[in-house]
Amino acid sequence: MYFCAGILLFILNLIENTETELIRRLKKGDVDAFTQIYNLYFKRLYHYSLEFTKSVNQAEDIVQDVFAKLWANRGSLSAEKQLQSLLFVMTKNHLISAYRKNINSPIYEDYIDYCNIVYHYDHSRIEYEEFIGQVHKVISDLPKSQQSVVIMSKIKQMSNREIAEALGINEQSVKNYLTQALKVVRDKLKHLLLILALLIFS
Amino acid sequence: MDKKLISKYRTDKLTPSELRKAREEVNAMSDDDLSALIEEDWNTATSLSSDDDCEMKERVYRRIIPGRSNDFTMWMIRIGKIAASLLIPVLIISTLYFYDKFQNARDLSIAYNTKKGESAVLTLPDGTIIDMAGGSAVKYNPVDFENKSFTICFNGNAYFDIAKKNGQTFTIDAGLLEVIVTGTSFDLSSDSITKAGAIYLVDGSVTLHNKGNDENVLLSPNEKALWDVSGNITVSEFDDNDNPTYRQTGSLTYRKAPLRQVIEQLKRCYDCEIEYDHALDTLTFTGKLPADNPQAAVDVLNKSFDSTFTVQ
Q1: What is the dihedral of CA A53, A56, A60, A63, to 10 degrees?
Q2: Is residue B261 part of a domain?
Q3: Contact flag B48-A99 (C-beta cutoff 8 Å)
Q4: How many CB pairs under 8 A join A and B?
Q5: Which of A41, A202, B135, B247 could lock onto B268 through a cystine, CB 3.0 to 4.6 A?
């Protein structure tokens, strides 16, 4: 008797929690359905966003934005779609812009270089966010004039001409500053990060 | 473009040359094409890190749905709070209730019981002496002795020697009747089962108060009062032959007492069973029975009734 009731409850629970049922309930404004979807997909969405943006704060912002949109637009959801693709549609613009930004970033290129160097020594490496932190630290040790040129060039990704206009110096000086500064930065960074990597694994 | 590049980008496993290749391709690609590639990766991505930031998960959730929590422990805390707020008044009310109940139930009474076959002399706080026969019970509250009037409960058979009082009333609750005394000696017998009883007043004066009809009967020395189950009181004088059933002398004296009552009293006094011909129940007995030897008492009955009474 109790066994049958238990099985029945289990089946009812299964039916209740299928994705289509969850979407149907969400469309009606059922907060519990939203909570279940949130608990089901939060982890996947957050980690995927984190891997694309390589920034904890940005990943958190994306997840918040996507789930807030899901809740706000619950009335106009399409019940035929899978939750996974519904969520992707809401996330994709964030992912694309993060992808485009990072893949074009000179610091990310440096980071990939660093990763490949470290990879030869060991499998341990620091995260990109931490790497950026180290880069900023090294840049802040540069003389003031070089510092601003490096920040404009590498972080704000301005062209040499833009930098020259902004600082009121000629383009050749910008090039000179950059060459000097980046050599210092690269050397320091390599030194620092290798020591760091060795320290972690020693 | 190879979708593997995307998954390699996610995990930072691109080589410098792959990065340059990916950069070129991505920069040449429209958002829609890129989106299709990423979706393919999104649907197959499995190597997602396993550590779960619960605090952030809860924080983001609450920004979307304010005033709610998806965290199980938060729910438990909330339920706990509700339960606690419900429990507090329940606890307060029950504390008051049980305190009140126990105050009422706080009974400081002292009870003395004599078993069948034993006798005891008891002195109450006011100096009253009670000589109790077997199977009797006295119950009183010592605090009451400070009051103007007090009551003790009595059941059984005893000789009372009440201490002299100055304006204090002493009441014995003997079931159907109350015996109100002022300073006196008497023999009282009251049976909680048959409800009947008898009092033989030796000295002083007592008032019998019938609780049923509020009737008062005043007894003078050398008077006896008998009452039956309905509370009817018969008062008469008693002479030397008409002794109370139990006295300090330790003998039981009966005058025209129903045999059944005599046997019951013997059984209680000696804590024994007495076998006899129940056809004799309707007869009465007049005479004295020793209160210290059951066999001797039974022998007297044997001779009186010309029948066989045996003590078990």
Answers
A1: 40
A2: yes
A3: no
A4: 96
A5: B135
Q: Note whether B60 contacts A84, CB cutoff 8 Å.
A: no
DSSP symbols for B31-77: HHHHHHHHHHHHHH---------HHHHHHHHHHHSTT----HHHHHH
Q: How far is B2 from chain A (nearest CA, A)?
A: 15
How far is B2 from B25, CA to CA, in rounded Å? 10
Q: Sketch out chain A's domains with CATH numbers.
A: 2-103 (1.10.1740.10), 106-201 (1.10.10.10)
Name the closest residue on chain B to residue A94, using Cα atoms: B35
ipTM: 0.73
Long-range pairs for A55-64 at CB < 8 Å and ≥24 separation? A55/A129, A56/A129, A58/A98, A60/B56, A60/B60, A62/A91, A62/A94, A62/A95, A63/B60, A64/B60, A64/B63, A64/B64
Please state the domain count of chain B.
4
SS3 state of residue A163: helix
Å between B63 CA and nearest CA of chain A: 8
Q: Convert the pLDDT of each residue in A83-119 to its tens digit.
A: 888 889 899 999 999 999 888 888 888 888 877 777 6
B22·A103 Cβ contact <8 A: yes
Do B202 and B301 sit in the same domain of this protein?
no
| Angle (nearest 5°) at CA B134 between B133 and B140 | 70
Mean of pLDDT values over A42-55: 89
pTM: 0.47
> Is residue B120 located within the same domain as residue B158?
yes
Which H or E element spans position A21? helix A19-27
Selected residues 3-32 of chain A with any CB under 8 Å from a CB in chain B: 31
Residue with tokens 């619950």: A74
* Inter-chain touch B39–A116, beta carbons under 8 Å: no
Segment B67-117, tens digit of pLDDT: 766 556 566 777 888 888 899 999 999 999 988 887 766 667 788 888 877
With residues binned 3-state (H G I as helix, E B as strand, rest as coil), the percentages for chain A, rounded to 5, are 85, 0, 15
Please give the Cα distance from A132 to A108 (Å, whole number).
8
> Which residues pair with residue B173 across a beta bridge?
B153, B178
Please report, in angstroms and rounded to a whole number, the separation of the first and last CA atoms in chain B: 114
Residue B242 lies in a domain: no
CB B197 within 8 A of CB B227: yes
